[in-house]
Design goal:
- It catalyses: 2 D-glyceraldehyde 3-phosphate = 4-(hydroxymethyl)-2-furancarboxaldehyde phosphate + phosphate + 2 H2O; 7,8-dihydroneopterin = 6-hydroxymethyl-7,8-dihydropterin + glycolaldehyde.
- The protein has 395 residues and is of the alpha/beta class.
- It folds into 2 domains: 220 residues, Copper homeostasis (CutC) domain (TIM Barrel); 147 residues, GTP Cyclohydrolase I, domain 2 (2-Layer Sandwich).
- The chain is built from 13 helices and 15 strands.
- An 8-stranded parallel β-barrel has the order 1-2-3-4-5-6-7-8, surrounded by 5 helices. The protein has a 5-stranded antiparallel β-sheet with strand order 11-12-13-14-15, covered by helices on one side.
- Helix 10 packs across helix 11.
- The radius of gyration is 23 Å and the shape is globular.
- It starts with a strand and ends with a strand.
Amino acid sequence: MTKMLASVTGTEEAEIAIACNVDIIDLKDPKSGALGALPTADVRALVAAVAGRLPISAVCGDLPMEPDLIRAKVEEVAAAGVDYVKVGFFPSGKAADCARALSPLARQVKLVGVLFADKEPDFGLLPVFAECGFHGAMLDTAVKNGSRLLDHMPPAGIPDFTKICRELGLMSGLSGSLEAPDVPRLLPLKPDFLGFRGALCGETGRTDGIDAEAVRQIRALIPEERQAEGRSSVDYRLLAARGYSPGAADATHGTDKIFVRDFVLPVEIGAYSFEHGHTQKVRFDVTADVLRVTNTPEDMRHVFSYDVIMDGIRTIVAHGHVQLSEALAEHVAAHVLEDPRVMRVTVRVEKLELGPGGVGVEIERRRAKEQSRALPAKAAGDAAIPVRVQKGQAS
């Protein structure tokens, strides 16, 4: 499951994070850059104050790519007693040498290499991290000017990062001015952790103190599993984006219709030879009937995000050529039905460049009621019942 990392600057903020059940405490000075480091004495004091209640990571600062300099700083931070040390890797011909210089330290502390989505991140460093014994890798943003991770790397590109990390045995993390609406968009990509700072500070900005209510709102968006009275306690209503059955979802609240209309993308699609080797405009219309969590929605905890639908379409399209409009519609429907709150979805796919009007297909898929109560969402989605297909001319 995806864990929540909260960046804090001192003991008071650490106590707020612990009280709000975050999973990892991250020590940094946000006034000193993306990976601004706290004084080592402060790191040591915070480790003592947390006293093993949660794992702790600490950053090394925005350092130049000089192997000896980086190794010395990592040794210093590791000696303060943290569980993870995060090291920034900026574009440089020496980046791989810096990683290799840290290889001996990987046996002493869990190293996390940080790449920056706004600095042309080199995914070729990921195998180097694995070779050198790093524990994980992370995508962040270097410039904190209000732009977010998803402004520099769309969801369709992030699965490459998480997939490579999984194949290499590296823990994967995503950060970079993430906000509450980003959480349901990123959870389906299955990172091992999501990192937050600015979103935890309410309206005040990342350099001010964190706010307990803001931390609780982010925490509630990320499925939480913790031990209570000797057994696992899971809020299944919050597991929707990770493919679990809603369990206690209350159908008495009824459903809402969440829709995406007139969403046009260039798509490599078509069975004819003249349709291969180039894109054509395709319009998507998607409507999902979604179980309500509450009759008084107030924030992202209470809704199904239409961004999840659009991100899914972009990701499916990015996979390459699709022979049939029917197949494309089925992929989109299956993606939407992965969320167990979705009871029914209608998908319309129209090719716009084959004549004076649109041609394509409209399908409706419905979750099997008995399976939606008992099965994980992916399994229930696989068992979705086909209801109606409407076609234009040949796909």
